[in-house]
């Protein structure tokens, strides 16, 4: 279903007022509020430019942070309006409110080729409650709904789903890319298809593990989550991360892999330390015999070699979750090896998850990856195979 959604290119936008939902939830400096990474704003520029070039007027909408339905001046989108104006080289009007008098007046006066930004939509509690009246007020300002907010498609909010009840709704160019890679490739991957899962917790990724087992030829499991699987298969994991309550689930997944004929590879060795710290003394040990006073903080070199070799013979790779505590140099080698193998494999490669994306960037392989998803939680729910409200509400292709 995901690849069959209409985009801005499938609909006449000329002379129309377009309500464009973006994800401008940018990271900011805790003390100064200065935007530290403009990536999410830059990612929306292709759709904005497309609409401006095609004679549309744009009413931009986003949330920022978690104001929880109250008016918080420190979470104003005004700095984003300023950044956008700099990037576009043209004025971006900023309304003082979201659906109030100022927004209504500005949107009424907006002409083709002009652009405005509404104040933080989560200043209203009706946004997250998906209040139909609020959604209608948003819709009343425009003729068309376009969304590039992939990071929010798993949310059933007024500006991410509810509004589509009142306006023709299509995806923007960024959303189109996400749906193309995550949607098409998961539906119809070139084989062999290898999925790599890591990160800290099994419980964060129950649905992802289960769904990817049904799609992939090979599943590589590393990171903190692997230890619950090692314990489930009888290994001794010392003080490594373990979720006792997920051991039964891990056993089920091991059985599921056998039943479906999926090649499930668990780590065979690990880089272990007595404490969780950047300069902890560390040694490589057999994964099934980790000393009682040690915890595994990275996959070991034998595992990295086995994982790399599986990746190098793949045609499609999907990766979510680092192989170890890559934030510390001593425990970064496993994650680096996997990133390197993906870059060298020539496989179609997709990365979902915030920390995995920052790992490939940190190791300098980002430009070798086919697609790095912009949505953290959203890309995970996509990998779970869930029907997502922010996608389901868009118009289907004829
Ligand atoms: P993503 O954001 O890509 O979905 P996660 O948030 O699930 O990834 O996991 C990332 C975190 O997992 C990182 O901060 C990393 O330090 C941690 N991690 C990976 N391996 C281990 C391990 N063996 N022990 C403890 N933490 C780990
Ligand atoms: Mg994370």
Describe this structure in words.
The structure is a single chain. A hairpin with an 8-residue loop joins strand 10 and strand 11. The protein has 15 helices and 15 strands. Helices cover 34% and strands 15% of the residues. With 398 residues, it is of the alpha/beta class. Helix 8 (206-213) runs parallel beside helix 10, helix 9 (226-232) crosses helix 10 and helix 11 (301-312) packs parallel to helix 12. The strands form three sheets. A six-stranded parallel sheet has the order 3-4-2-1-5-6, sandwiched between helices. Strands 9-8-7-13-14-15 form a six-stranded parallel sheet, sandwiched between helices. It has a three-stranded antiparallel sheet with strand order 11-10-12. The longest helix has 15 residues, at 173-187. Residues 353-355 line the site of magnesium ion.
- Helix tally equals 15
**Radius of gyration, Cα only, in angstroms?**
23 Å
The secondary structure category is alpha/beta
Q: Judging from the principal axes of the Cα atoms, what is the shape? A: elongated
């Amino acid at each position: 279903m995901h690849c069959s959604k209409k985009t801005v290119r499938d609909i006449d936008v000329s002379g129309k007022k377009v309500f464009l939902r973006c994800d401008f939830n940018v990271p900011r400096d805790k003390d100064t509020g200065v935007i530290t990474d403009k990536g999410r704003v830059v990612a929306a520029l292709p759709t904005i430019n497309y609409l401006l070039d095609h004679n549309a007027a744009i009413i931009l909408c986003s949330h920022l942070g978690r104001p929880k339905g109250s008016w918080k001046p420190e979470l104003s989108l005004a700095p984003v309006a300023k950044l956008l104006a700099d990037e576009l080289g043209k004025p971006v009007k900023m309304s003082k409110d979201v659906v109030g008098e100022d927004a209504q007046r500005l949107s009424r006066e907006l002409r083709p080729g002009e652009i405005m930004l509404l104040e933080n939509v989560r200043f209203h509690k009706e946004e997250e409650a998906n209040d139909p009246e609020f959604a209608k007020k948003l819709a009343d300002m425009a003729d068309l709904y376009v969304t590039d907010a992939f990071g929010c498609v798993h949310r059933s909010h007024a500006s991410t789903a509810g509004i589509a009840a009142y306006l023709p709704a299509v995806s923007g160019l960024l959303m189109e890319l996400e749906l193309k890679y995550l949607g098409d490739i998961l539906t119809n991957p070139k084989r062999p298809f290898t999925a790599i899962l890591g990160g800290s917790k099994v419980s964060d990724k129950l649905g992802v593990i289960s769904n990817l087992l049904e799609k992939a030829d090979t599943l590589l499991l590393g990171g903190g989550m692997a230890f619950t699987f090692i314990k489930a298969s009888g290994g001794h994991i010392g003080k490594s991360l373990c979720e006792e309550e997920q051991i039964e689930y891990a056993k089920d997944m091991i059985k599921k892999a056998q039943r479906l004929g999926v090649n499930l590879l668990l780590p065979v060795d690990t880089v272990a330390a007595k404490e969780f710290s950047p300069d902890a003394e560390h040694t490589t040990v057999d994964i099934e015999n980790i000393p009682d006073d040690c915890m595994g903080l990275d996959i070991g070199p034998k595992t990295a070699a086995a994982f790399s070799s599986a990746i190098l013979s793949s045609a499609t790779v999907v990766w979510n979750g680092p192989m170890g505590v890559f934030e510390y140099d001593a425990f970064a080698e496993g994650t680096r090896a996997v990133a390197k193998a993906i870059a060298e494999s020539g496989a179609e490669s997709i990365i979902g998850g915030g920390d995995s994306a920052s790992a490939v960037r940190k190791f300098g392989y980002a430009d070798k990856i086919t697609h790095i998803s912009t949505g953290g939680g959203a890309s995970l729910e996509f990998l779970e195979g869930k029907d997502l409200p922010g996608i389901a509400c868009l118009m289907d292709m004829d």
